[in-house]
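A further point concerns the way the authors explain their paired sequence and structure data. The central task, working out the structure tokens from the amino acid sequence alone, is never made concrete. I therefore recommend that a typical entry be quoted early in the introduction. An entry of this sort, consisting of the sequence and the corresponding backbone structure tokens, reads as follows:
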Amino acid sequence: MTPDRYPHPPLENLPEDIRTAILAVQEKSGFVPNVFLALARRPAEWRAFFAYHDALMDPASVGRSSNLSKGDREMIVTVTSAANQCLYCVVAHGALLRIFEKKPLVADQVAVNYRKADITPRQRAILDFAMKVCTASHTVEDADFDALHAHGLDDDDIWDIAGITAFFGMSNRIASFAGMMPNPEFYLLGRTPRKPKADA
């Protein structure tokens, strides 16, 4: 595997707000996803990137509600990242997709061919639209909105699908040109059911 083309800055040299945020991620997940360190070399862009990321991927954090689940969102990222051939995002967001959907096989299925994946007709319609935005956004028309409305999605949900697709189109390209590699931990996350915790 090709190593990152841009060295990660030492954690102790980062601005306090970024360092604190990264340490919180490490505390929650047990490791620091490489994207957090790779982008930290440009603090202003790191802040803008993650603010936009969080607004799209966790709308409740900015006071919005949405008809898209966390699994729906990660599925959009995985499918469009595969179309953009972004190894980092397919592996990292595929791991989150497996966890949120509680389906060990789903990330591999949708990354290779979402039309044959074990997903709902509603999710397939979401991914059809996401792929159109990803590969031919200039051809989107009212009929595409109608198809999503038929599955109970409103215009703000459709904006979310397009926004996630477009945002990760940028993220995919940054990760790819910079040689960003997925953390080894991502490859195994969500592939086996979690064992129930023993009673204390």
Remarks:
- The first helix runs from residue 16 to 29.
- DSSP finds ten helices and no strands in the chain.
- The CA atoms of residues 74 and 96 lie 7 Å apart.
- The two ends are 43 Å apart (CA to CA).
